[in-house]
Amino acid sequence: MTEEENDNDIPEGFWKFIGGLPASKDVKNGERRILECGNCGGKVYYSKAENNGHIFAKCCKCKMEIMQ
Ligand SMILES: [Zn+2]
């Protein structure tokens, strides 16, 4: 973490990363996938929680991640 980082400072490539993920409605609860990162082409681990449908996705290469 640096002092420049805050919630309004979206890193470059983040939207490409998001764009490479499936729509939440297209994934069943409890499902896990390995995807290609829309930002860097690396491996993205994507999962949707069984109980509440929360999404977690993280790229191994560029380290972009979301939790929803
Ligand atoms: Zn990536």
SSE order, one letter for each helix or strand: HEEEE
Distance between the amino and carboxyl termini: 21 Å
Bound molecules: zinc ion
Given the C-alpha coordinates, what overall shape results? globular
What does this structure look like?
It is built from one helix and four strands; from the N terminus they run αββββ. It has 68 residues and is mostly beta strands. The chain has one domain (3-67). The protein has a four-stranded antiparallel beta sheet with strand order 1-2-3-4, with no helix packed on it. Strand 3 and strand 4 (65-67) form a beta hairpin. The two termini are 21 Å apart. The structure holds zinc ion. Zinc ion binds next to loops.
SSE blueprint and pairings:
Blueprint: H1 14-19, E1 32-36, E2 43-48, E3 55-59, E4 65-67
Antiparallel strand pairs: 1-2, 2-3, 3-4
The structure holds zinc ion (ZN).
Zinc ion binds near residues 37, 42 and 64.
